[in-house]
Amino acid sequence: MGFRRISGFVAAALLLGGLLFLMLRLPEKGPPVLQGEAISGESGQRDRGGEFSEEDSTAPAREAPEDSYGSLSSPDPGLGRQLETLRKRFEQKPDRETALRLLQELTANFLVADPDKASATLLAFLSSGQDLPTGLDFVIGEGGLEEWPSLRAFLLDLLGKVDPEEAARYARAKVIPAKNSTVEYAVSLRILWNQGGAEKPTPELTQAWLGLLQKPDWSVRPGAAWMESLDFAGRLPAALPVFVGAATEWLAAPAASEGKAEAAQLALERSARNHPVETMGTLMQNPAWLSQGRGPGIRASLFARADLADPKQAEILDRYLSSLDPGSPEATAFSKAFPYRKFSVSPGLSGFPDLQTPEEIRTSNLAAAEFFGRAMAEGRYPGLRDEIAQIQAKLLELNRIK
Amino acid sequence: MGYLRTKFAAGVAFLFTGMVWADDFSPSPVPILDENQAPYKYTGMVESDLGYGSGSVAVHPQLVLGCAHVNYDDLNYQWLSEIRWHWKWNGAGLPPGGGLLMDGQYDFSTYGTNVRNSRWGAADPKSFNVDFVVNYSTANTAGGEYADWIEKGGSYLQTRATAKFITGYPSGRYADGAADEFRMHETGPFSGKFAPEVVKLPDYLGLDGVETGPGNSGGPIWGVKDGEWALAGVLISGAELADEGYSFAGVYAIGRNAWSRISSALGTVGALPGQLSGTFAIAGVPATITDAAPRPATITRKFTVSGMVGHVNTMTIDLAINHARRADLSVSLRSPAGVTIPLQLTGSRKSSSPRNLVFTGKAVNGFRSHPANGVWILSVKDSFPRNTGTLTSASLAITTR
């Protein structure tokens, strides 16, 4: 019976993983850092005894050309000293807690400083080419990026908060064309997305994202930043054919995919939620896509997300069901999954997933019951009658208990 | 397979050397009818269409919390969609069919965690989330019987509080067909101190010395809040190897993150504490908008948003600026997460004039689903010389979901 699923193995996997993780990542201990010794500052206090005074800025008011980057202001000496202190601290390889504290303190100080001066100071540092590892991972949390593996990645992300326009210019001019660092590239994608209002995909972002996806030496053994960048697959429908082609390979041989198969599953899930018509439409373009390994099951679950209250989605699902091989594992997977409402709610590089409301779910369930009832009455999909009967039973139950 | 899993678990026992051992507590059946008492009455069993099951807990009319691995078919690498909830089950044998068919689930998978797990060799696809899941239904899950939370469950579990116990269904401790095989069980109370340092997963805590038993995962762990039992976490992993002197409980602690994510996932107003709408005035006004001479000048002022639950659903801003030339100005709003969105200075109220720029209830788009609480920063930038002005007032109205 099912209750034989022993949870111990989960603990074992997690714990052994944790041990290996710690063994691999134990930081070298640096000298102790006194509280407030380094980049100390009072969060929320803009005036800090002249350290942030505006007297050092002399650049005249002017408009920056669109195709260049460079602050309209001059670097602030006080902020510059803080950056230099930070750099020296990271030369000493601080432990994880200290590293996080140093970065949080610097962030707080820069966010309350004059944005133009802060921007100019960050740009000057980035342009210097200096960098150091932070000993941290690449982690996204509720409030945006929470860990950055390199100092430059952290400062670029901070520039995106202080001065989004300058950050976007820098990303366009320096990071995207150079393709030197997946981490900085991932941060740059986020900057470009946020600058566009974090709502609508742009051709520029699509091209930039495809540049990351299609760089062979980055995708062979991807790091966390590269993997997190797959979140944009769910935002950029124009890139879907390329992405689905890549995902087909990963899902055909998951063991060799270095984790990309699972990440692709998550990205496709978000794509099907954000752009259902485009996602299902893309999958219908080529029967070979998602046809091997785990692919058919994933494909079935993506179509099982169709909201049949939307005529466009209903039309595509009709074509999918007409093409589905009766008795195939994919047909079984579809009937077991529909209506499929599993969502990952974790934040991604492109923000948070938009979830269905209970009212949308109710409307969708009623529309689905009508769709499949009509299909049975009209004798559509004759080879799938058992599967459809199974779906109808579920929908009847879901619609009755509301 | 079961043997390998057992040995694998045994292999990590040495990790706990040096930790303080808790009193050794094993599960015992909850007396029949006691399932109607708090907090047992919030516990139930979830069952997948593959016949797998575990404990769960009702925390809201639409939400049942549990462990993710019961929702996952690890032979076919698929998340399962047919999950049934049996509220406060405490009988001999499995529930006789029925139960509440849940509409779906929210999980906490991330791309980056997956990478790390693959490199550890723990390439189990489901382990790329924290093995914590929220099953949801648009129907009523537990007839008004919903568990209270300890908002800082992680902190609570890391103390040596004398009152903690787990409820669940450790069926694996019994032979097939045993009378108590599918009874609700209680483990504890115990006073052990859960530790976070073993596994670096968000909100994951472990404690050695508590015997749980297969099947018990997904069950709630209880602590005391205001003299009543309240949910502190959900058991997501464990092991029972009494013959080797090793036992373990791993929990996903309820914390602010989980609370916020679940509130957001819910997408509707429910029995959650906190505000779902609020208006917040800007601090530090009136403020002079410095002229762009000799260079562009920016002033920033803060909205401090607190007490909201969930994430932004809608946002509007009221704004009043006095300035001789509005074309000199650009205004933007930065979220606590650091995302900045420019505000268009068009569509101002009819009473506006070139010197008196007034917006009322202007929609601010682009922050939907962002965390609401924190410091939001309004920036007013003057890019051209010769004119100055004043930021007179501003307020931010937010609804969350």
Describe, in plain words, how this protein is organized in 3D:
The complex is a heterodimer of chains A (402) and B (401). Chain A is mainly alpha-helical and 402 residues long. Among the domains of chain A are: 68-199, no CATH class; 306-339 and 356-402. Helix content of chain A is 57%, strand content 2%. Chain A is built from 18 helices and three strands. Chain A has helices at residues 8-25, 77-91, 96-112, 115-127, 151-162, 164-178, 182-195, 203-213, 216-219, 224-229, 240-252, 260-274, 276-285, 295-303, 311-323, 329-337, 358-378, 385-400; strands at residues 139-141, 144-147, 342-344. Chain A has a two-stranded antiparallel ribbon with strand order 1-2. In chain A, helix 5 runs parallel beside helix 7, helix 6 packs across helix 7 and helix 12 crosses helix 13 (276-285). Chain A starts with 7 loop residues before the first helix and ends with a helix. In chain A, 52% of the residues are buried. The model of chain A is unreliable at 1-67 (pLDDT under 50). Chain B is built from four helices and 25 strands. In chain B, the strands form five sheets. Chain B has a seven-stranded antiparallel sheet with strand order 1-12-11-14-15-16-13. Chain B is elongated and about 85 Å long. Chain B folds into two domains: 2-266, Thrombin, subunit H (Beta Barrel), CATH 2.40.10.120; 277-400, Galactose-binding domain-like (Jelly Rolls, Sandwich), CATH 2.60.120. Chain B has helices spanning 2-10, 111-120, 153-157, 256-266; strands at residues 27-29, 43-48, 53-60, 63-67, 72-73, 78-79, 83-87, 100-101, 104-107, 132-136, 165-168, 185-187, 204-208, 220-225, 228-241, 246-253, 277-281, 287-289, 297-305, 312-323, 329-334, 340-343, 356-363, 374-382, 389-400. Chain B has 401 residues and is mostly beta strands. Classes of the chains: A mainly alpha (402), B mainly beta (401). Chains A and B meet through helix 1, strand 1, helix 5, helix 10 and helix 12 of A and helix 1, strand 6, strand 8, strand 9 and helix 2 of B.
